[in-house]
Amino acid sequence: MTPQKQDDGSLLSRLDEIQRTHRAVLAQSPLWITGVATVMLTGALHRWNDSEYMFFSVAVASPAVVIPAIWNTRSTDNLSWWRRYWFKLNLWIAIVVFFGTYLGTAYFFDLMGMRYTFDVRWNLSSNVVGQNRQQVPLFMYPLTHAYFMTYFVGLLEAERLLRPRWPSGGAGQSLLVMFLSYALAYTETFFMASPLLSDFFAYASRERMLKLGSLGYASYFVVGLPMARRIDREENWKLQRVVIEALATCMMIMLLLEVWSNVIGPL
Fold first, then answer.
1. Model pTM?
2. I need a labelling partner for 85 at 20 to 30 A (CA). Which of 49, 77, 133, 222 fits?
């Protein structure tokens, strides 16, 4: 009986930390949203150089790491910081973000008509994948990390709340994942492909991107949501497993993007 009680206690401790981390991520999300809105509305983006872009993106991404870490210092399980959920979630997101920014952006450039026109010299993207020779600004990596932490935690929490009210069974739950993923992709595209950002970021056809391109973008969340849900749910994952699962997620996202590109794209 004792091992079972210990296992139950460990499970309850992990689930409690997951919820604390999610609350911390959502609580800090207005920081990056306010920061991005401010630089858009004030036109600060027009005056910045590479180092200023980078400083801003690191500044808005840092709370997603720091605040969950602080919020989880109350835990009594004595785990090292690298064994905690907040760190594993950040690591998993960082890998998916690197894949999506370094390689996945090629699908958006070539097939969805996306363009960046930031006046920067610090760029990082694949010189092999994709036919369009556009470059991805380096500051997009930490900035996207800030976005995706909020996006995935928001999806996880929305799914948790809606799951009991949604039709049961595998088909019903799959539809819930697809619905949430498309809704998020559409919403993000609607707000980011804004006239306020048209000097730096736009799509060739905003209308087609919203309706059809969002299906391709949703691939990140259709795959990522069920995979992110797995982290530390049944057992305390080692970092090697976090990396392997994140890389598997990236491969599945690329395969779905390939399906989208053959069925719908280019726009």
1. 0.93
2. 222
